[in-house]
Amino acid sequence: MFARSTFRAAQPLRMHARRFATETGPSAAQTAKPAAAAAPKTAATPPPPPPSPSGGGGNATTYVLGAAVLGGGAYYYSTLSGGAKGSAASKQPAQAAFTGGDQGFLSLKLAEVVDVNHNTKRFRFELPEKNQVPGLPIASAVLTKFKGEGDEKATLRPYTPINDENEPGYVELLVKQYPGGPMSTHIHNLQPGQTLDIKGPLPKYAWAENKHDHIGLIAGGTGITPMFQLARGIFQNANDKTKVTVVFGNVSKEDILLKKELEELENTYPQRFRAFYVLDKAPKDWQGNTGFITKDLLKTVLPEPKSENIKIFVCGPPGLMKAISGNKVSPKDQGELSGALQELGYSKDQVYKF
Fold first, then answer.
1. What is the pLDDT of residue 33?
2. What is the secondary structure of 178-220 as a DSSP string?
3. Which of 35, 243, 265, 332 has the fewest CB atoms within 10 Å, i.e. the most exposed one?
4. Per the annotation, does 299 bind a ligand?
5. Strand order in the sheet with 106-115
6. What percent of the chain has pLDDT over 90?
7. Domains of the chain
C-alpha cells in the first residue's frame, strides 16, 4: 500500500487547517474547573456491531507484560443512586479480563463477524465473563497466537482492539487480510463458535489526561486502530482537553477504516478534533487530498515542532513508517527519527512510533 517511499504532492488546504494546527490547546493547569461547573459533554461512543492500535500486525515474538497489571481492576462503571438528598455517583468495580503478568493466553470464542470491505472484517470475541471489561489501558494492544498443523512455531501478532473499553462482555478486533499473512488469514477463516488465543495488555504509550496540549496521529491502513483507541479515550474523558489532528492515508475510499467513528468525533468536537484523509486512488468526486501523505500536508495541518507540549504518533505499513518517521527497531526500541517528520524539525522526543 505504501511501498513507495516518495510521496506525491497533496491538494492545497484551506487556511483554517493551519489555524487549527497552530492554536495550542489548553494545558493541564488551564483545564482545572470548579466542582460546581456544568458537566461537559462526553463523547458519543460507537455502538456495538454490526456497524462498525494494530495497529496492523507486525512481527512480534516477545512482549513485556509486567506493567499491564496497571489495567487490571482499574476500570469502574459509574451509576447514579437516588435519595432524599439528591443523587450521587456510586462506583462499582468492573472485573478486567486481561490482567497481564502470569495470566497467559485466554481462549476466547468468536461470537460475530462483520464484513467491512473486500479484505477487512470486524471480529467480536466473548470474554470469559459477561460482566468483564477487557481491562486495556490507553494505549495498549493484545497479542494473538495461532499454531497451525505442522507449524514448528506459533505465529504471534499484536492487534489494538477497537471496541469501547467500558462495554462489558467482549473484545473486538479489526483485521485486514494480507496475502500470505498467516495470522490474518487464520482469523479471517474463523467461524462463530471457534476460538482464538489472546493475551494482554501489551502496554504501548502511557497516556494521562492533558498529557499533551495537541497531538498528531499519522496512520495508514489498519494503523488507524491505536490512533482511534487513543482519540476515543481522550474524548471520553470530560477532563481531558487535548486537541487531536488525524492524517489518515489509504489506497481507495473503500479502504478508509473507522471513518464513521472519526466523523462522529469531528462533528461532536469540531474545535478539538480534525481528520484529513489522503487517497492514492481517489474517485473523481473526492474532496480530500490525493496521492500520498506529503511533507507539505504535514507542515500545514500538524502542530508545529516549536510548539510546547505536543506529540506526534505514527502507525502504518513499513513504507509509510520509513517515509514519515523511520521504522522502530523493536517494541522496546523506537529507533532514530528520520523521514518527513525529521525534515520538518520534529525531535525524537516529540514522536512515538506504534
1. 42
2. PTT-HHHHHHHH--TT-EEEEEEEEE-S---TTS-SEEEEEEE
3. 35
4. no
5. 155-159, 140-146, 195-203, 106-115, 120-126, 170-176
6. 71
7. 106-203 (2.40.30.10), 214-353 (3.40.50.80)
Q: What integer pLDDT is reported at residue 19 of this predicted model?
A: 56
Tell whether residue 225 is among the known ligand binding residues: yes
130-142 burial string, b = 16+ CB within 10 Å, else e? eebbbbbbbbbbb
161 is in an annotated binding site: no
Per the annotation, does 157 bind a ligand?
Answer: yes
Residue 159 assigned as binding residue: yes
CA distance 311 to 134: 27
Q: How many helices (H) and strands (E) does the chain have?
A: 7, 14
- Nearest CA to 196 out of 134, 107, 113 is that of 107
Is 183 labeled as ligand-binding?
Answer: yes
Q: Is 63 annotated as a binding residue?
A: no
Its pTM stands at: 0.77
How far apart, in whole angstroms, are the C-alpha atoms of residue 89 and residue 79? 6
- In eight-state DSSP terms, residue 37 is S
Q: List phi, psi (to 5°) of 196.
A: -140, 135
Strand partners, 88: 81
